[in-house]
């Protein structure tokens, strides 16, 4: 769906991004992960057709950015970090206006605008002026304008920036609901957001792509310790005995016990947790959840970007 090869952008003598190469398959949700100033927004603006690269190539569904910029833009929806909204317009009026700018006819807009309103949970807001909406709803309007023309690629720059915890969960669910139908590329400097939302991670630092892959792949490559949180149901003492008798387990941290469940923090000598799960099941212990320990992605990120991390 997206093919990027040796993408580079200079502003005068200042290098913003350098030699980025990656692919994103159709229907996937990919995320640029990096600190402020890592080059995320520059890369997104190039992919959205707002900037031309200094060198390199971008193809979206076979269409070349440099050779056919207008054709490519028609296949892309873009939400900048600060949505380009007109406060004096109603939500319906704004979406129809943006649709007309994209060449949509009246009949298509009459069908498409209600669909987009429903997709982005803006029911009841169609006749409301945008300037009276909360930040969360303004972000939703921003996404609605980005998908009104049913693009192949949806680009979202820091979609949760400034949102409260409830709005963050709602935005995360909205983005996930759009995956599959649209290929989505988001940017964020918030690790947990990319971790919760994206199928594929692209780690940027100082304008360069330091690593790419799924969360599991990156943790396997860059996490220096295999730390997991194990939650079991049943007798915690029986679970503790099995854990202690499994050679794979090198460390057991303090357990937590609530409502019939026990959670243990574990360190493993190798990335083969199925061995532990099999031992627990054989002993009659119910395995409720086994997942990388919280903070594992943060430590891996530090390792990817050469900023330290666990040794």
Task: List unreliable stretches of 5+ residues.
Answer: none
Cα-to-Cα separation, first versus last residue = 38 Å
User: By CATH's scheme, which homologous superfamily of the largest domain applies?
Assistant: P-loop containing nucleotide triphosphate hydrolases
Largest sheet: 6 strands, mixed
Query: With helices defined by DSSP (H or I, 4 residues minimum), what is the helix count?
Result: 11
What CATH architecture of the largest domain would you give?
3-Layer(aba) Sandwich
Strands in their spatial order, largest beta sheet? 6-7-8-3-9-10
Task: Return the CATH class of the largest domain.
Answer: Alpha Beta
Beta-strand content estimate: 25-35%
N to C succession of SSEs: EEEHEEHEHHHEHEHEEHEHEEHEH
Q: Percent range for helical residues? A: 25-40%
Tally of strands: 14
Please state the overall shape, judged from the principal axes of the Cα atoms: globular
Multimeric state of these chains?
single chain
At the fold tier of CATH, the topology name of the largest domain is Rossmann fold
Nearest-angstrom radius of gyration? 23 Å
Mean pLDDT: 85
* Count of discrete domains: 2
What class, by secondary structure content? Answer: alpha/beta
């Amino acid at each position: 769906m997206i093919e990027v090869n040796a993408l580079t952008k200079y502003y005068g003598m200042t290098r913003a991004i350098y030699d980025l190469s990656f692919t994103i398959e159709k229907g996937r949700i990919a995320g640029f992960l990096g600190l402020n100033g890592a080059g995320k927004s520059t890369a997104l603006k190039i992919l959205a057709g707002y900037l031309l690269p200094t060198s390199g190539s971008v193809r979206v569904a076979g269409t070349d950015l440099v050779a056919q910029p207008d054709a490519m833009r028609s296949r892309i929806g873009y939400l900048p970090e600060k949505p380009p909204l007109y406060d004096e317009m109603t939500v319906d009026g704004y979406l129809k206006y943006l649709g007309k700018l994209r060449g949509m006819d009246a009949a298509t807009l009459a069908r498409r605008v209600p669909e987009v309103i429903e997709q982005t949970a803006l029911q009841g807001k169609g006749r409301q002026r945008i300037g009276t909406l909360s930040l969360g709803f303004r972000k939703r309007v921003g996404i609605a304008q980005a998908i009104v023309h049913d693009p192949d690629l949806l680009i979202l720059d820091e979609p949760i920036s400034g949102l409260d915890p409830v709005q963050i969960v709602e935005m995360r669910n909205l983005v996930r609901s759009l995956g599959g139908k649209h290929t989505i590329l988001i940017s964020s400097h918030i690790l947990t957001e990319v971790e919760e939302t994206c199928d594929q991670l692209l780690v940027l630092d100082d304008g360069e792509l330091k690593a790419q892959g799924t969360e599991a792949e990156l943790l396997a490559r860059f996490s220096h310790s295999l730390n997991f949180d194990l939650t079991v149901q049943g007798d915690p003492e029986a679970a503790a005995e099995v854990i202690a008798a499994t050679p794979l387990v090198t460390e057991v941290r303090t357990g937590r016990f609530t409502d019939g469940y026990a959670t243990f923090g574990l360190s493993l000598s190798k990335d083969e947790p199925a061995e532990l799960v099999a031992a627990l099941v054989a002993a009659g212990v119910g395995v409720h959840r086994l997942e990388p320990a919280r903070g594992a992605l943060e430590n891996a990120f530090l390792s990817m970007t050469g900023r330290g991390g666990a040794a």
